[in-house]
Amino acid sequence: MSWSIGYDAHWGRDIGYGVPAWCDHPRCRREIDRGLSYVCGGEPKGGDRGCGLYFCGEHLAGCVVSLCSRCRYHKPPFEPKAEHPRWLHHKATDDSWAAWRAEQAEACRA
Prior knowledge:
Blueprint: E1 6-8, E2 13-22, E3 31-34, H1 69-72, H2 85-93, H3 98-109
Antiparallel strand pairs: 1-2, 2-3
């Protein structure tokens, strides 16, 4: 099984190491991906301890399970950032997303 591209229904966004993204820390503009290396909690959706948002190495810390600063102190999660423009462009133009675009257009017409 590949973790290149998936979907997180909780946050309503694409995840995986194939998805370029911004660090979800509000004061950070580092470019990362939404792979397991960057997810708070170390597992998709955050596992049992994390929020499931994605952070650069500066904003994710821990020995056994990497957590963001909010989850380390049991606070509510940060707001997730908007999609990276490069990812939006890929979904809007790449042939591999043609079927998905057609499904979205049909859903909007319904």
